Amino acid sequence: MGRSTMVSNGQRALWTFLIYALVGPFFAALALAAIIALTGAFGISSVLPVEPPALGEAAIGSYVWSTLPAVLTAAILAAVVWRTGGLSWLVAAAVAVIAFALAGLILPIGLDQARTALAILAGLVSLAVRQTLIQANIIPDR
């Protein structure tokens, strides 16, 4: 006998907010650390827009700094999920890039040459978190 689960949009929105706010900064720090480590390992760190700090410092700094854009993204996307029950990849990426830009206005980042690349990374991290929500059957794949 199959068990049918009925998940309301409010529950989907709550999980969307929690996962974006908590997992988003972790994915951002992990992605930035991987980029710095790989460019250093392959000797192509000249492709980075700025000289990277030490790996641990960069990862922890990006985790701490990315909490504000993650919470902004989480709040907006939770409202979208609450209203529609789902989330498209384009909305997820666009909201993350805009939230990154707003956070860059509020908090000093000090990496003026890297803002564009970091904004793109924010969009990619948002897509990874969205895929996590889909794999966990929290939101449908649209």
Explain this structure:
With 142 residues, this protein is mainly alpha-helical. It has one domain. Helices cover 71% and strands 0% of the residues. It has 5 helices and no strands.
Keywords summarizing the entry:
single chain; 142 residues; mainly alpha; 71% helix; 0% strand
Distance between the termini: 28 Å
Element-level helix/strand string: HHHHH
Which descriptor suits the 3D outline?
Answer: elongated
Number of DSSP E strands: 0
Proportion of strand residues: under 5%
Number of helices: 5
Q: What is the radius of gyration?
A: 16 Å
In quaternary terms, these chains amount to single chain
Backbone structural class = mainly alpha
Helix share of residues? over 70%
**Low-pLDDT sequence parts:** none
Major sheet details: none
Q: What is the mean predicted local confidence, pLDDT?
A: 91
What's the number of structural domains?
A: 1
Transmembrane segments: 12-42, 62-82, 89-111, 117-139
Keywords: Membrane, Transmembrane, Transmembrane helix
Brief summary:
By secondary structure, the chain is mostly helical.
List the helices and strands and how they pair.
Elements: H1 9-41, H2 55-65, H3 67-84, H4 89-106, H5 115-135
Keywords: Membrane, Transmembrane, Transmembrane helix
Transmembrane segments: 12-42, 62-82, 89-111, 117-139
